[in-house]
Amino acid sequence: MDPVRRAWREGVSVVVATSAYGLSFGALAVASGLDVWQAMVLSMLMFSGGSQFAFIGAVAAGGGVAGVASAAMLGLRNALYGMSVRRVVDPRGALLPVAAHVTIDESTAVALAQEEPRARRVGFWVTGVGIWIGWNLATLGGALLGDLLGDPRQWGLDAAAAAAFVGLLWPRLKGRQAIAVAAASAVAAAALLPALPAGLPVVVAALVGVVVGLTNVLGPRHESRMPDPGGPEHRHGAHERPGPVGSAGVEHGQEHDREGGA
Amino acid sequence: MTLWHLILLASIAVLAIKLLGYAVPPALFDAPRPRRTLELLTVSLLAGLVAVQALGQGEALVADARIPAVLVAAGLFAVRAPFIVAVAAAAGTAALLRALGWAA
């Protein structure tokens, strides 16, 4: 198949799957005490699923300021994506802030999974802009529906939020270091829950990741052999790029691995 | 701070961080250590969020229908089910267990 058409097709399928999940964000946001406009502003302006769910979770528990911290810290990975995406997309002028805004797990994954420069650009823009539109429409639908739903627990929406974080975490559990960090952080957050104000347990437990990251405890030994960061392809860096949302993205990651190994 | 203030503050912070990725010299974060630290920070945050979302109720730990629901989702993620399917299955599991009165 023509690589550009393939990028389109992959982008559109990721857009549909991801946007559908915006419904549960809209409904949960309303259940957390936000009004429809507040949910919409988060989806339009913050536009990063994990950060949005983390924020409304903290707000629901009464810890809004900690929610700002969690959202921002979770958003840090987008900066990492931006550094990779700008090499393959190269947005100029007014397009640069637009590209930055739609640089998220999914658009990065689809772009980097393509092999030709034009297909990479197409994959990035179709996925990024498509999800922005779909995610916002779904948020609006979910928020309006959420008012009618009543107790979100009755529909299992609280479990859906927990499951969504599992889904974001799953593709990142590569290697014992990541698994150990995840286990320790989960235990720490649960243990701190009764002791700290709402929202803070997650922020404090995140120190586990920072400390292990800086010291590289349990880490692979050959990590110092990194490729030239200025290289046009930067494929080895892409191996470490965390998995995107959903199995579609996971497959992209593997494609990329094969490509890099070839 | 009102809820609106928090929403705008958090949104602008996340947006600014995205722009940062296009503004900073790549070399700054492209070394193994900052890359690894950012990745493990994300792992750490997500794992903490899983625990709090699955077990937390206010400032108390509770075991309710969310635990089996999350296990169902994890099983589906393990067999590469699509994201939306696993999340919907978790919601359905919790809703069903509550409707049947088998879990809180």
What does this structure look like?
- The complex is a heterodimer of chains A (262) and B (104).
- By secondary structure, chain A is mainly alpha-helical.
- Chain A has a domain at 1-157.
- Chain A has helices at 3-31, 36-46, 49-61, 64-89, 95-101, 105-113, 117-149, 157-169, 175-192, 200-205, 207-215, 235-240, 246-261.
- The longest helix of chain A is centred in the middle third of the chain and has 33 residues, at 117-149.
- Mean pLDDT of chain A is 83; it is low at 224-262.
- Chain B is mainly alpha-helical and 104 residues long.
- Chain B is built from 4 helices and 2 strands.
- A two-stranded antiparallel sheet of chain B has the order 1-2.
- In chain B, strand 1 and strand 2 form a beta hairpin.
- Chain B starts with a helix and ends in a 5-residue tail after the last helix.
- The model of chain B has no long low-confidence stretch (mean pLDDT 92).
- The chains are: A mainly alpha (262), B mainly alpha (104).
- Chains A and B meet through helix 1, helix 2, helix 3, helix 4 and helix 5 of A and helix 1, helix 2, strand 2, helix 3 and helix 4 of B.
Task: Furnish the topology, listing elements before pairings.
The complex is a heterodimer of chains A (262) and B (104).
Chain A: H1 3-31, H2 36-46, H3 49-61, H4 64-89, H5 95-101, H6 105-113, H7 117-149, H8 157-169, H9 175-192, H10 200-205, H11 207-215, H12 235-240, H13 246-261
Helix pairs in contact in A: 1-2, 1-3, 1-6, 1-7, 1-8, 2-7, 3-4, 4-6, 6-7, 6-13, 9-11
Chain B: H1 3-23, H2 32-55, E1 56-57, E2 60-61, H3 66-78, H4 83-99
Antiparallel strand pairs in B: 1-2
Helix pairs in contact in B: 3-4
